[in-house]
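Progress against Task 2.4 (sequence-to-structure conversion) is shown through the following example record, which the project officer requested during the mid-term review.
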Amino acid sequence: MRPLWIFALTVFTAMVAVTAWASLEANVLVGFQRLLADRWGVATLFDAYFGFLWFWLWIVYKEASVGRSLLWLLLLFALGNLAMAAYVMIQLHRLQPGAGADALLLRQAA
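Structure tokens generated for the chain above:
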């Protein structure tokens, strides 16, 4: 599971860095307006948000709480891959030593 932890941490760090870098050029709302003015920008947004919804379906499956699942949906829509990486790191942190991929991916009995 260490390679997955390293990948999630790399994604998290890269997303923080690129978000900070982009915010130095323009406010997120200005960038969003530019994105919406371009058809490929709109297509990219659809692609990204459908990807967030696919990931969220796994969260719904994993989480026992509807409220927690909805909170993660909001985080995914607001933060994208930053939230995805954080969720994976949290799940990895909760694993018992030596646990396999099934412990990460599947819902655990309460």
